[in-house]
Structure formats: structure tokens, C-alpha cells
């Protein structure tokens, strides 16, 4: 929507609201994608035309984390959260989510403007060191430690206000996401969680029961995706016994 002036946006809203001009015609007339037009209309409908006068906002880490929590933990649709928060672009939340996962489930606010010369030189040196470190492959011990830290951070993000522990379904879903992202076994993830006294625990049997219960509610889609992931990961060599064992997080000899 960066191509549109404030007056364009007001005209689009009035054409849609007062004259029932459809999205397709508005999109063609103003040469803007239908999804952007739809988002703009929903945004004005929710906050009024005053939202167009909102100045640039540098969102805090806490604001971003609360917004992402609504998507990751509370499973709200990203578009609804974005409109509710009055974000001017529908892609902002997607960018935050991508950076959040990329940075090991941490919010990182980028500093705007050009840094001072000395700071830039230090940053360049740090950047080179970081690049050199990335070029060196992690040892098995370093990789394991990094994975355990990412597991800990993700589960900690599930903690609720007023010291309420997250439900088993939320932890089970987080375990499934971690397994796909880190390419580690369910056993490794559960052992890491259950070995930490500060994290909410989840037994293997309770996870399997939760997946089965949620599976029935969602027409087997999620459990089938998990089964397929295990099947593909092991090059189609696992039968139903080994796949079941993997879902349960137990070893098969």
C-alpha cells in the first residue's frame, strides 16, 4: 500500500463503503493487489480514517512479543491480530515471526540510521568474527547445547500470566514444531524439557494422548503430517511400529 496516497486510501474506502465498488474493480483502478485493498478496508473499518494519520511507530520488543504470542500460543489468525493492533502493513507480523524464529525465538530490534564510524568498525570486526564462526561447523556437543537452549526458550514462551502453566496441547504442539525445525527426536526434546525444573513437563504418554485427541478434533491432519515427516525423514524405511514408537518418543531396538 506504499503506492497509495492518503487521499487514494480515503477514496477507496468511500467507493467500497458508500458505493459498493468491489475489490476486483478497486484493485484494477488503483493498480494495487486485492489482498492489500482488503487489508486497508478492514483496517479503516476497525479503527476509522484516523488510522491513516498514525505516525511512524518504532514498536518495542515487548509489543512484538505480545503480538507473536497471540499467533503462536493463542492461535489467533495473523491477519486479525495485525488489524486489531492497527499495523499499517499486513506483512509486518510475518516479518516479525520470521525474524523471531531465525534469531532463536528472541526479539531483535534493528537499530535505524547509520552508526558512528568507530561503532561501524567494531560492528564490521564483530561481523567478520561471526561470519568466520558460522563457517566453522558446530561440533556435536555445540549443536546439542544450541538445540537444548532453543527448546528451553520456546517452552518458556508458553508460560502464562499469573503463574498458570500452559496446557498439554500447547506443549505438545510446541514439541511438534521443534522437531520439524531442529530435526531432532521427540525423545531428545521431551528429555530436555522434563530435565529442567523451571519448565512445564510433559510425559511421552500424555503427549501421545494429546495428539490423538487433537487429531480426532482436526480430522487426522496434524498427526498425519507428523507421521509423514517421520516416514520421509527415515527414507521410507520405517513401518507403523517404528513410526508409532517415534510418536511416543520411545526407543525401538
Low-confidence blocks of residues: none
Instruction: Please outline the major beta sheet.
Output: none
Helix residue percentage: 55-70%
Number of helices: 13
State the separation between the terminal residues, measured CA to CA. 58 Å
Chain-averaged pLDDT: 79
In terms of quaternary structure, what is this?
single chain
Backbone structural class: mainly alpha
- Taken from the alpha-carbon principal axes, the silhouette is elongated
Q: How much beta, percentage-wise?
A: under 5%
One letter per element, helices H and strands E, the order comes to HHHHHHHHHHHHH
Rg, rounded, reads 23 Å
- The number of distinct β-strands equals 0
Describe, in plain words, how this protein is organized in 3D.
This protein is mostly helical and 253 residues long. Helices cover 64% and strands 0% of the residues. The protein has 13 helices and no strands. It has helices at 6-19, 23-30, 34-47, 61-72, 78-85, 92-102, 117-135, 140-156, 168-182, 186-194, 204-217, 221-233, 240-248. Helix 9 (168-182) crosses helix 11. The longest helix has 19 residues, at 117-135. It starts with 5 loop residues before the first helix and ends in a 5-residue tail after the last helix.
List the defining traits of the structure above:
253 residues; mainly alpha
Helix-strand blueprint:
Blueprint: H1 6-19, H2 23-30, H3 34-47, H4 61-72, H5 78-85, H6 92-102, H7 117-135, H8 140-156, H9 168-182, H10 186-194, H11 204-217, H12 221-233, H13 240-248
Helix pairs in contact: 1-3, 8-9, 9-11, 12-13
Amino acid at each position: 500500500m506504499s503506492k497509495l496516497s492518503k487521499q487514494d486510501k480515503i477514496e477507496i474506502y468511500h467507493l467500497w463503503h458508500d458505493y459498493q465498488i468491489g475489490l476486483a474493480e478497486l484493485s484494477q483502478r488503483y493498480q494495487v493487489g486485492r489482498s492489500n485493498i482488503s487489508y486497508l478496508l478492514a483496517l479503516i473499518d476497525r479503527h476509522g480514517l484516523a488510522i491513516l494519520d498514525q505516525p511512524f511507530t518504532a514498536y518495542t520488543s515487548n509489543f512484538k512479543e505480545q503480538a507473536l504470542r497471540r499467533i503462536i500460543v493463542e492461535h489467533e489468525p495473523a491477519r486479525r491480530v495485525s488489524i486489531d493492533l492497527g499495523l499499517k502493513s499486513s506483512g509486518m507480523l510475518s516479518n516479525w515471526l520470521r525474524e523471531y524464529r531465525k534469531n532463536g525465538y528472541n526479539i531483535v530490534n534493528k537499530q535505524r540510521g547509520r552508526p558512528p564510524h568507530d561503532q561501524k568498525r567494531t560492528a564490521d570486526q564483530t561481523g567478520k568474527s561471526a561470519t568466520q564462526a558460522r563457517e566453522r561447523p558446530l561440533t556435536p556437543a555445540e549443536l546439542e547445547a544450541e538445540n537444548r537452549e532453543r527448546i528451553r526458550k520456546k517452552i518458556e514462551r508458553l508460560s502464562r500470566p499469573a503463574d498458570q502453566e500452559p496446557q498439554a496441547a500447547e506443549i505438545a504442539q510446541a514439541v511438534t514444531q521443534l522437531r520439524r525445525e531442529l530435526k531432532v527426536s521427540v525423545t531428545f526434546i521431551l528429555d530436555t524439557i522434563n530435565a529442567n525444573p523451571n519448565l512445564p513437563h510433559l510425559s511421552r504418554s500424555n503427549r501421545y494422548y494429546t495428539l490423538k485427541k487433537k487429531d480426532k478434533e482436526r480430522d487426522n491432519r496434524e498427526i498425519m503430517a507428523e507421521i509423514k515427516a517421520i516416514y520421509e525423514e527415515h527414507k521410507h524405511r520405517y513401518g507403523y511400529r517404528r513410526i508409532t514408537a517415534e510418536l511416543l518418543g520411545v526407543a525401538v531396538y
